[in-house]
Design a protein that fits this description.
- The N terminus and C terminus are likely disordered.
- The protein has 322 residues and is of the alpha+beta class.
- A hairpin with a 2-residue loop joins strand 16 and strand 17.
- The chain is 32% helix and 31% strand.
- The protein starts with a helix and ends in a 12-residue tail after the last helix.
- It folds into 3 domains: 32 residues; 108 residues, no CATH class; 149 residues, Protein Transport Mog1p, Chain A, CATH 3.40.1000.
- The strands form 3 sheets. Strands 8, 9, 10, 11, 12, 13, 14, 15, 16 and 17 form a 10-stranded antiparallel sheet that branches. The protein has a 5-stranded mixed sheet with strand order 1-2-5-4-3, with helices on one face.
């Protein structure tokens, strides 16, 4: 009888342990499939969102939780960035090492649209998927439940999100063309190195494309053209010193208050860089853009420069001659 009781007791304990383990596995699976937990673990995005990794449709929207540290439009933007980061990672994982793949996206309109009667808002993007064998361009819509925020007026940002350079009267949004503002690689040289003469370096990036917009104060009494040419020669010397095998791609473009040059920076012709310079509001604006040559990525890189012109930062851009 004692042994029977002991055996029953042991069986109950084993069953309880098994049940606890199964519950823990289920809880872990739920946590791994939660979009907020995954984005924090994978991309470092701490976003007030909930839903499964499959959420984003009208039937299964991503829920933006009520809080006051981040407006819904910003939450939606970085959520969509995380989704596309994941898509790009899957493409890379299934592609040969020497083949460039990527997922590029840009916001259409102002981001989140008006809410419907159920408190759902739609965010529409244009997406380019650069696969191993083909390029696909499509529009995509993502649905967010923001019913907890109330009326539209209460959840829009009072100020645009991006980099505001007040001393130069310039604002750089979080998205320029297909490239996204990269705060982790943006440097304020005055704050970080006590070098206000170096200004700031504002970083943007997308798969295979990196850009830095340097804005720094001018000095001396020379006229604008002389100032620009002097800084241009210094910048070209820095670029060619860093890339001794750089080969010019076409001739230097010159326009009033604007200079532009393209280079191939490797022997295969696969990597390119450009240097653009202008002068505005008492500041030099130097744009260094580097990318992997591909018809789609070439287009994305040129679009970035064109969008800077639309922001009244650079003059009109002409494509490089191959």
């Amino acid at each position: 009888m004692t042994w029977n009781i002991l055996a029953v007791g042991l069986a109950a304990i084993c069953a309880a342990v098994a049940a606890l383990a199964a519950g823990a596995d289920t809880e872990n699976m739920n946590q791994e499939n939660d979009i907020g937990n995954r984005f924090l673990a994978d991309w470092g995005y701490d976003l007030p969102i909930s839903g499964t990794m499959e959420a984003g449709t009208r039937a299964r929207p991503i829920v933006i939780e009520l809080q006051d540290r981040m407006a819904p439009n910003t939450v939606a933007f970085w959520t969509i960035a995380g989704i596309h980061n994941g898509q790009a990672a899957m493409l890379r994982a299934n592609a040969p090492d020497n083949v460039l793949t990527g997922t590029y996206w840009r916001t259409l309109g102002d981001g989140l649209g008006p809410t419907d009667v159920e408190g759902l808002a739609k965010y529409v993007v244009e997406r380019k998927t650069l696969g191993v064998e083909k390029v696909a361009t499509q529009k995509a819509a993502y649905y967010f439940d923001i019913s907890s925020f109330g009326s539209r007026e209460t959840w829009f940002e009072s100020h645009p999100v991006g980099y505001n350079l007040a001393q130069a009267s310039l604002f750089f949004p979080r998205e320029i063309g297909w490239l996204k503002y990269d705060p982790n690689h943006t440097v304020d040289y005055s704050t970080k190195y006590d070098r206000p003469d170096l200004g700031v370096g504002i970083a943007y990036s997308a798969t295979g494309v990196e850009a830095t917009i340097y804005v720094y104060p001018g000095s001396g009494n020379q006229g604008t053209e002389e100032k620009l040419n002097r800084e241009w020669l210094k910048a070209v010397n820095d670029l060619t010193s860093q890339n001794p095998s750089a080969l010019k791609l076409g001739e230097r473009r010159e326009k009033s208050n604007f200079l532009l040059q393209f280079w191939i920076t490797d022997d295969t012709g696969w990597k390119a860089t450009s240097l653009a310079m202008s002068w505005k509001n008492g500041h030099f604006i130097k744009v260094r853009l580097t990318w992997h040559r591909d018809p789609t990525v070439d287009e994305i890189a040129m679009n970035f420069l064109s969008e800077l012109h639309e922001l009244d930062v650079l003059d009109p851009i002409v494509r490089p001659r191959n």
